[in-house]
TrEMBL record:
Sequence similarity: Belongs to the IspG family.
Cofactor binding remark: Binds 1 [4Fe-4S] cluster.
Protein name in the entry: 4-hydroxy-3-methylbut-2-en-1-yl diphosphate synthase (flavodoxin)
Top EC class for this record: oxidoreductase
Organism of derivation: Pseudothermotoga thermarum DSM 5069
Gene that produces this protein: ispG
NCBIfam families reported in the protein's UniProt record: ispG_gcpE, PRK00366.1
Domain IspG C-terminal: 252-337
Amino acid sequence: MRKAVRVGKVIIGGGSPVSIQSMTNTPTVDVEKTVQQIVELQMAGCEIVRLAIPDFESAKALKQIKEKVSIPLVADIHFDHRLAIESIKNGADKIRINPGNIGAKWKVQEVARVASEYKVPIRVGSNSGSIPKEFEKYERSVALAEAALREVRYLEEVGFENIVVSAKSTDVLETIKANEYIASKVDYPIHLGVTEAGTYEMAVIKSSIALGYLLLKGIGDTIRVSIAGDPVKEVVVAKKLLIALGLRKGGQVIACPTCARAEIDVEEIAKKIEPLVEKTNLTVAVMGCVVNGIGEGKHADIGVAGTKSGVVIFRKGEILKTVSHTDLEKELMELLNSVMNEKT
């Protein structure tokens, strides 16, 4: 089991559930907009949020932001170690430093001493875009991992072990290999992600492969699904990924891919009920026809399957009733609400 690291009220590692992270894309100095986005992220299921700290004004803004939110805040630091120290003093719950650009060993250790005083953990986060030149002689995945591990050793030299490690590449296989390497060398909790994964579809594909593979191997204690655009989408995808892997409870809609046999609009129905189902621990099956519909959906809490004359509604594989196409939405919502009330 990996060491446990406390970030505000959230525990990373130590056998705790895998936590979901994201990052704001508002200017941190704009306190109002940043707080608004943090609240939106938290409502979507984000448990730790990272903020860019490019200057001292942003570091100072952390104090105001922290007073208005309840979620742990991570200060993302590049180039200037003094920004890390200022962020810690202004209430950051964790610091992220990049081995590729944070600077000399003494700078890293100075940050560690202040972090130790304030009991704030440090994430050593390397990525493929900023591997230090001295590691370029290695295979890229090893270089990525060793860049992070060198920084870890710098921290350990001054007795600092309140550490989270991450190694992110834009390449799926590099990300996997780098994290396997790190997991074999240290027992600090690991933050997973594919950096610069792209726009929505490619980002989901890359992240699902890399994070899913590593999590199934028991590697990874907190995750971020990086998507270009609205960060709320990152949280939604991360949550669904953990549910699909069985690492988190949550409602989900399973739906057939549809074919010429479909007697109902599977996509439309699934999309209508997804927002409601996601707030539960129920599994709801939406099947286009009865050929395989009831059999394939029998493990679901509730299911529907289209027929030529109507729609079959079933629960745990047992048919409850057949309703008309026009009454389906009303009947399904009533059943959903009834089952949810039973479970509360």
